[in-house]
Recover the amino acids of this structure.
């Protein structure tokens, strides 16, 4: 599936979710809430950058087919500067590793538009989880234990 097809599919999925036709499962692993002393740092351009990572897996059955998508955000922060990379993967259902190297063969060449669609889906599903948890199962994984 190319980026344009993915964006169109995500639009349809979001509409079907709003209509109550789709139920979702999400898994999230993020370093965002960790104390800075526990986060990775990178020296780049002569500066020390603090690194945050966030993996989100989205899964549902849509049009009688299993759908699995994993997004990965790599955020580097130094003082008031932020650099972010967003990657999107469409792995087979059985492959649910939060490891960029293992997911690389399933990467979608995503642009800012597709990344924004993924973010819209994330926001919609988080809202769905808050209002009707029976339609959106959420599992948060501790990045320190990776379980």
């Amino acid at each position: 599936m190319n980026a344009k097809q993915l964006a169109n599919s995500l639009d349809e999925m979001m509409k079907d979710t709003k209509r109550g036709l789709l139920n979702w499962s999400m898994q999230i692993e993020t370093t965002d809430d960790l104390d800075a002393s526990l986060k990775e740092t990178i020296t780049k351009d002569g500066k020390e950058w603090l690194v945050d990572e966030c993996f989100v897996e989205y899964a549902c059955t849509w049009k009688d087919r299993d759908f699995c998508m994993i997004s990965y955000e790599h955020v580097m922060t130094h003082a008031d500067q932020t650099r972010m990379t967003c990657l999107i993967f469409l792995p087979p259902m059985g492959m649910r590793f939060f490891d960029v190297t293992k997911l690389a063969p399933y990467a979608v060449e995503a642009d800012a538009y597709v990344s924004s669609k993924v973010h819209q889906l994330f926001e919609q599903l988080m809202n769905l989880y808050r209002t009707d948890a029976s339609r959106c199962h959420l599992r948060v994984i501790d990045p320190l234990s990776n379980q």
In short: Residues 3-32+43-132 form one domain. The longest helix spans residues 112-131.
